[in-house]
Design goal:
Distance between the termini of chain A: 40 Å
Radius of gyration of chain A: 24 Å
Largest sheet of chain A: 6 strands, mixed
Number of helices of chain A: 8
Structural class of chain A: alpha+beta
Number of strands of chain B: 0
Largest interface: A-B, 27 and 20 residues
Oligomer: heterodimer
Largest sheet of chain B: none
Shape of chain B: globular
Order of helices and strands of chain A: EEEHEEEEHHHEHEHEEHHEEEEEEEEEE
Structural class of chain B: mainly alpha
Strand content of chain A: 35-45%
Chain lengths: 351, 526
C-alpha cells in the first residue's frame, strides 16, 4: 500500500559538536503523508535533527533516508540542494530582494510552467492578490504562508518546519496553525516539524517524538504519549504530572493516598514512582483526611489545588469550580473513573 | 555551518589573494635577510635609534594630545547643553577628510619661510625669519590636527551608546555628578578611548605626508630619504622591517582591546535621550574650547587654502593642469576600488560562511595592509618590480596592486559586516530549493550584500585618492595625481601651485564621504 511507504527514516543517527553530543542514536520512521512533531525543551537537539535531515549538518554515525534514498550514511552525503527537502525556518527567511511570486518560484526548475505553479501555490495559501508584494510588506502570518508555499512549490519529498509558529502572537498562533494544518493536509505533504509547545505537537502531529538531551525518549501517537508515557521526563513534559513513591502489590500500586490500579505490568514488591495527573483523583473534605490543601489556583472552570501529604510530597489536583475548598482544608482522596497509573522504577531519574 | 567544504572556486581565489598580499612583505624580508650581518651593523647604528626615538616621541605626544582634546569635545557635544552642540559635533570631526600632507602644506604655507605670517610681518617689522616651524613642532601640530578625530569619533559613539539609566542608578545611590562620571561613565568609555588611541598611534606611525613636508625624520621619511639618496637599498628594507614590527605591535594591541567584551549592550530602551548637563557659566569656556579646535583644524586650513587659491588664480596657475591630475587620480582610484572590492568578496564570504582555522588565517593575512605603511609596500614593490616584474614595473598595474594590498582590509571589513547581517537561513533556504553553493552566492548572497560591496569600493576609492607615498614611488613616469602634485609643489615652495589641487582633492573626497556618512546614519536608524 502506498500509505505504508516510509518517507523519512533515521537509523542510529548520532551527531556531536565538539564535546557536546547534540543527537544520540536517534531512530525513527515517518510514513508518507503523515505529520511528525519533534517535541522537547530548548537545547534537546530537535532542531539539529531537522538540520541533519535537511543536509545542513553531517551526522557522525547512522544513516538518514529521505524518499527511499539514503541521503546521509557511511560514505554517502547528498548535498541539501539534491535532497528534495523543503524547509520553513522559524524566521521564514524570505528572500528580502525578491517579491512574493519570485520567492515562490525560486525552487522551480526551468522546464516547468513556473507561472502556473506559482498561481497554484498562491491559491493554495489564499494570497493571490499579494503576488507582487515584497516580503517586508507582509504580516507575520502572510510571510509564514509564503515561506510554506515556497518550500512546497517544487514538490519536495518531505517538508521540514522549524518552530513554525513561535514568531506569532499567542491568539494568532492558534488560528494560523489550524490554517497551516489544513493547507498541508490538502496538499498531502509529509511533514516533520519542531516545537517546544506540547499543545502544538499534540494538535498537529500524527506521530510525536519527545526529545531530551539528544535522545528520543518516546516515539508514538499523541494519545499514547499523553496516557502511557515511557519515561518520567515524557510524563512531566507533556501535561502536568506529580510522582508518589509506592510499592507494587499484585497488579496495583500501594501509595500513601491508597491503592491505585496499575497501568503497566511490574513484578510485585518493586519500589516505584507512580505518576499522578491532576484529574486522576477527587478530593473529599474530611477533618481526619491525610492531605492538606496548601494552595489553590482559580482557572475559571476549575480550581487547581496543591495538596500536601504526610510524607511531605505535594500533588496537584483539578476539581470543578463548584468544589470550592479554602486553603487549610484537610482532605482524603478517591480515584476517578477508570484511570490507571503509569509507574516507573525508582532508580530512574525524573529528568 | 559545517555541512560542506567551501566550493573550490572560492577558496582557491581567496588563497591566491592572500598569497598576493603576502608578496611585498615576503620579498622585503628576503631582501633584508640577503644583506645578512651587514644589515645588523647598518641597523644598530646611532642614526637608527635617533629615528626610533623621534618616531616614538611623536607617536606618544600626538596620541596624548589627541586624547586630551577628544574627551572634553565628545562629552561637551553629546551630553551638555552647549550652544549649537550638533554643529560642533560635526565640525570637530570634519578634519578627518583632510590629508595630512594638505595640513602639512597649510602649515608650511602659513608659518614657514616666505609663508603668510612672515610676509605679513616683513612689511611693518622688517622680519626676515620666523622661529623654525620645521621639525618636531610642525610635525606635531600637523599630525595632531588630522589624527585626533580617530579618537573623537569612537568616543562620541560610545557616549551616545551609554545607558542613561546606569547614571541615574549611580545618582540615586548617592554619587554626585563628578563621582558618577569618574566611577560609572569613564570606565565605560575606556574601551573606545583605548581603541581610538591605538588608531591615532598607528596613523602617526604610518604618516608620510606631514612628516616629510615638515622635515621631521621619522621612519617613513627616513626610509624615503634612504631610498632616494643611496644606491644600497638594503638599509631602506631593514628600516622598513623595523617599522613593520612596531606597527604590528600596535595593531596587535588594538585587536586585543577590540576583542575584549563590551561593557554594555545597548538595550532597546537605552535609546531614550539622556539628561543634558547644564553648563551654566562654564558654557563660555566650553564654547571657546570648541571654537579654538575648529579654528585650528578647520578654519585655518580652509582660509589659508583659499588665500593661496586666490593668489594662484590671479597669477594664472593653470586650472586645466589640475583637471588632468584630478582625472588621473579618479581613474586610478576607480581601478583600485573595483579590484579591491572584487578581491574582498571571496575573502569575506569564506571567513563568514565557512569559518575554519584556514579561512580565519586567510582573512587575517589580508589585514596586513593595516600594518604596512604605504611607504613600505611601495618600496617592496619597487624592488620587486625592478628585479622580477619589469613588464609591469612603472605601470599602473603595479600601482593598483599596491593600493589593493593597502586598502583590502577596508573593503573586506565593509563586505564582512554587511554579510553578517544576511541570515544564513536565507542561503540554506536557497540550497534546499535546489541551488548549489555557487548559484546561491550569485542569486542570494551577492544581491543582498551589494550595499556593503559598494560602500567598500567607495571607501577604497576615497582613501586611494588621498594616498601619497605609494603613489609617489610607484607612479609611471609622467603620471601625476592630485596627491603627488600637492606634495611636489609644496616641497618646492610653490604654494599657489599646490593650493588648487589641494582644494580639488578635499572637495572630491569630502563630498562623497559626507554622502556616505549621512546615508549610513540614515540606514542605521531604520
Amino acid at each position: 500500500m502506498a500509505m505504508n511507504r516510509i518517507t523519512v527514516r533515521c537509523s542510529d543517527v548520532t551527531k556531536g559538536f565538539g564535546q557536546t553530543m547534540a543527537i544520540q542514536e536517534v531512530s525513527l520512521e515517518l510514513e508518507e503523508g503523515k505529520f511528525l512533531a519533534l517535541l522537547g525543551p530548548s537545547g534537546c537537539g530537535k532542531t539539529t535533527l531537522l538540520r541533519l535531515i535537511a543536509g545542513f549538518e553531517v551526522p557522525d554515525r547512522g544513516t538518514i533516508e529521505v524518499g527511499g534514498r539514503t541521503v546521509s550514511g557511511p560514505g554517502v552525503f547528498i548535498p541539501p540542494e539534491s535532497r528534495r527537502v523543503g524547509i520553513v525556518f522559524q524566521d521564514y527567511a524570505l528572500f528580502p530582494h525578491l517579491d512574493v511570486s519570485r520567492n515562490i518560484a525560486f525552487g522551480l526548475p526551468k522546464n516547468v510552467n513556473r507561472k502556473k505553479r506559482v498561481e497554484e501555490m498562491l491559491s493554495l495559501i489564499g494570497l493571490r492578490r499579494l503576488e507582487s508584494r515584497m516580503p517586508h510588506e507582509l504580516s507575520g502570518g502572510e510571510q509564514q504562508r509564503v515561506a510554506l508555499a515556497r518550500a512546497m512549490a517544487p514538490g519536495p519529498n518531505v517538508l521540514l518546519l522549524d518552530e513554525p509558529f513561535s514568531n506569532l502572537d499567542a491568539d494568532l498562533r492558534i488560528r494560523i496553525r489550524a490554517e497551516v494544518k489544513d493547507i498541508l493536509t490538502r496538499a498531502g505533504a509529509t511533514v516533520v516539524f519542531v516545537t517546544h509547545d506540547q499543545q502544538e505537537a499534540l494538535f498537529m502531529g500524527d506521530m510525536v517524538g519527545v526529545m531530551n538531551a539528544g535522545r528520543v525518549e518516546q516515539f508514538d501517537r499523541p494519545e499514547a504519549i499523553f496516557h502511557t508515557p515511557a519515561t518520567p521526563f515524557v510524563a512531566q513534559f507533556v501535561g502536568i504530572a506529580d510522582f508518589l513513591s509506592g510499592k507494587i502489590e499484585n497488579g496495583s500500586v500501594a501509595t500513601e493516598v491508597g491503592s491505585l490500579p496499575l497501568q503497566n505490568h511490574l513484578p510485585s514488591g518493586m519500589t516505584v514512582r507512580a505518576m499522578i495527573r491532576p484529574d486522576f483523583l477527587d478530593l473529599d473534605p474530611t477533618p481526619d483526611g491525610i492531605g492538606e490543601i496548601i494552595d489553590r489556583i482559580f482557572q475559571g472552570m476549575h480550581y487547581l489545588y496543591r495538596v500536601q501529604l504526610p510524607s511531605g510530597a505535594t500533588i496537584r489536583i483539578l476539581q470543578h469550580h463548584t468544589r470550592n475548598y479554602p486553603v487549610g482544608t484537610r482532605v482524603s482522596f478517591h480515584m476517578t473513573s477508570d484511570h490507571s497509573v503509569p509507574c516507573f522504577e525508582s532508580a530512574t531519574s525524573n529528568g | 555551518m559545517n555541512y560542506a567544504r567551501p566550493p573550490a572556486a572560492l577558496w582557491l581565489s581567496a588563497m591566491f589573494i592572500a598569497i598576493a598580499v603576502l608578496l611585498p612583505l615576503g620579498y622585503l624580508a628576503l631582501r633584508a635577510s640577503g644583506a645578512g650581518s651587514e644589515l645588523w651593523s647598518l641597523l644598530f647604528r646611532l642614526r637608527t635609534f635617533e629615528i626610533l626615538g623621534r618616531t616614538i616621541i611623536l607617536v606618544i605626544v600626538v596620541t596624548g594630545i589627541s586624547l586630551v582634546i577628544s574627551l572634553p569635545l565628545a562629552w561637551l557635544t553629546q551630553r551638555t547643553d552647549l550652544p549649537w552642540r550638533r554643529m560642533w559635533s560635526v565640525l570637530t570631526v570634519l578634519p578627518l577628510v583632510i590629508p595630512s600632507y594638505v595640513i602639512g602644506f597649510v602649515i608650511v604655507a602659513a608659518l614657514g619661510p616666505r609663508g603668510i605670517l612672515q610676509q605679513a610681518l616683513a612689511g611693518p617689522f622688517g622680519l626676515e625669519r620666523l622661529p623654525e616651524i620645521y621639525g618636531f613642532p610642525g610635525a606635531l601640530l600637523a599630525v595632531t590636527l588630522v589624527a585626533y578625530p580617530y579618537i573623537l569619533l569612537p568616543l562620541q559613539a560610545s557616549i551616545r551608546g551609554l545607558d542613561p539609566r546606569l547614571e541615574e542608578v549611580a545618582r540615586s545611590l548617592g554619587h554626585g555628578q563628578w563621582d558618577t562620571f569618574r566611577r560609572v561613565v569613564f570606565p565605560q568609555l575606556r574601551p573606545a578611548m583605548a581603541a581610538g588611541a591605538l588608531l591615532v598611534a598607528l596613523y602617526t606611525l604610518r604618516d608620510f605626508g606631514a612628516v616629510s613636508l615638515l622635515r621631521y625624520e621619522t621612519f617613513t621619511w627616513a626610509i624615503y630619504l634612504q631610498y632616494q639618496t643611496s644606491f644600497d637599498r638594503n638599509l631602506a628594507a631593514g628600516l622598513s622591517l623595523v617599522l613593520v614590527v612596531i606597527a604590528v605591535v600596535i595593531l596587535f594591541l588594538e585587536f586585543r582591546t577590540r576583542g575584549k567584551p563590551h561593557y554594555h549592550r545597548a538595550a532597546a530602551s537605552a535609546s531614550r535621550s539622556p539628561a543634558y548637563v547644564k553648563l551654566g557659566r562654564w558654557r563660555w569656556p566650553a564654547l571657546g574650547f570648541c571654537a579654538l579646535v575648529v579654528l585650528m583644524a578647520l578654519v585655518m586650513p580652509v582660509s589659508i587654502l583659499s588665500y593661496w587659491l586666490a593668489r594662484g588664480f590671479s597669477t594664472g596657475e593653470a586650472l586645466w593642469r589640475t583637471a588632468g591630475y584630478a582625472l588621473n587620480s579618479a581613474y586610478v582610484s576607480g581601478l583600485a576600488a573595483a579590484v579591491t572590492a572584487i578581491a574582498a568578496i571571496s575573502i569575506a564570504v569564506l571567513d563568514v560562511r565557512y569559518p575554519s582555522l584556514f579561512s580565519r588565517l586567510l582573512e587575517r593575512i589580508t589585514y596586513i595592509g593595516f600594518a604596512l605603511p604605504g611607504i613600505v609596500i611601495a618600496l617592496a614593490l619597487v624592488f620587486f618590480g625592478a628585479n622580477y616584474a619589469t613588464p609591469i614595473y612603472q605601470t599602473l598595474v603595479l600601482l593598483v596592486f599596491a593600493y589593493a594590498v593597502l586598502f583590502l582590509p577596508q573593503a573586506v571589513g565593509s563586505v564582512r559586516s554587511s554579510l553578517l547581517q544576511v541570515s544564513p537561513r536565507l542561503e540554506e533556504a536557497a540550497r534546499s530549493l535546489g541551488r548549489t553553493p555557487l548559484q546561491t552566492l550569485a542569486a542570494i548572497t551577492l544581491p543582498l550584500v551589494r550595499p556593503g560591496i559598494l560602500a567598500g569600493a567607495g571607501l577604497v576609492f576615497l582613501t586611494t585618492m588621498k594616498e601619497l607615498p605609494a603613489t609617489l614611488l610607484l607612479s609611471p613616469i609622467g603620471f601625476k595625481s592630485l596627491a603627488t602634485s600637492i606634495w611636489s609643489a609644496t616641497s618646492e615652495g610653490s604654494f599657489a601651485e599646490a593650493a588648487i589641487p589641494a582644494v580639488v582633492l578635499i572637495l572630491l573626497s569630502s563630498v562623497p564621504m559626507a554622502v556616505l556618512t549621512i546615508r549610513g546614519k540614515r540606514n542605521g536608524n531604520e
